[in-house]
Amino acid sequence: MASTDETMDRSSAEILTIGHSMLTYEQFLALVSRAGVTAIADVRSSPYSRNFPQFNKETLKIKLKEDGIAYSFLGEELGGRPKDRALYRNGIADYEQMAKTPEFADGIKRVVEGSRRFRIALMCSESNPLDCHRCLLVGRALKRRGIGVGHVLQDGSIKLQSDIEADLLRLACDDLDQSDLFAPPEDRLANAYRARARRVAYSTSNSVSTTNSAAE
């Protein structure tokens, strides 16, 4: 659950994210409607789901339109599975390098500009934001630009990116050596993001892994 009052979370988050996971369309719609979402930005590299066809790009776009929610595909700019092999390190998608590309910058710009007109939720497949590039890559980039980011969880609560970062630091504690304890806070956070990304980012050697989601 979110660590702060849900109403406060909603007002603090200018841009939301959500993972469709195994939800029905009706469950997904209920979550985004409750959060006040008026537009979905699909950040899956491959906007299709063999097991959950209700989230295939064309099907989802039509259903959302019927329910008064806009849809935009941004998987080319903000997806977690880059086509450029230079953006992989040891076969794993390198989020830090991906964040430096012109395409990524264009995608972030589109989201920020769109947020002036819509209540946007970035959508991918993973239910847990800590397992998904929408949080570890896109959410991080937005927060660094001073934009409030909140993640819609499957119980309907919204968890802020700042709370996610606190979780990342706790997860990284066991892996830190003594020198890391005296590093500047921004360095420790960067290392925590990097460590988590290496665990969950798309891998060319294990593309069907349930952890390294092919939909990203």
Order of secondary-structure elements? HEHEHEHEEHHEHEEHH
Give the helix level as a range of percent: 40-55%
User: What percentage of amino acids are in beta strands?
Assistant: 5-15%
What value does the Rg take, in angstroms?
A: 17 Å
Q: What is the SS-derived class?
A: alpha/beta
Global mean pLDDT: 89
Instruction: Describe the largest sheet.
Output: 6 strands, mixed
**Low-confidence spans: pLDDT under 50, at least 5 residues?**
1-11, 208-214
- Report the count of strand segments: 8
SS field, number of helical segments: 9
- What sort of overall outline do the alpha carbons produce when their principal axes are compared? globular
End-to-end gap? 24 Å
Strand order in space, largest sheet: 3-2-6-1-7-8
Describe the structure.
By secondary structure, the protein is an alpha/beta fold. Helices cover 41% and strands 13% of the residues. The protein is built from 9 helices and 8 strands. It has helices at residues 6-12, 25-34, 57-66, 75-78, 95-98, 102-114, 133-144, 161-172, 185-200; strands spanning 15-19, 39-42, 70-73, 88-89, 92-93, 120-124, 149-152, 158-160. The strands form 2 sheets. The chain has a 6-stranded mixed β-sheet with strand order 3-2-6-1-7-8, with helices on both faces. The protein has a two-stranded antiparallel sheet with strand order 4-5. Strand 2, helix 3 and strand 3 form a beta-alpha-beta unit. The radius of gyration is 17 Å and the shape is globular. The model is unreliable at 1-11 and 208-214 (pLDDT under 50).
Short description:
This protein has 216 residues and is α/β, with parallel strands linked by helices. It has helices at 6-12, 25-34, 57-66, 75-78, 95-98, 102-114, 133-144, 161-172, 185-200, and strands at residues 15-19, 39-42, 70-73, 88-89, 92-93, 120-124, 149-152, 158-160.
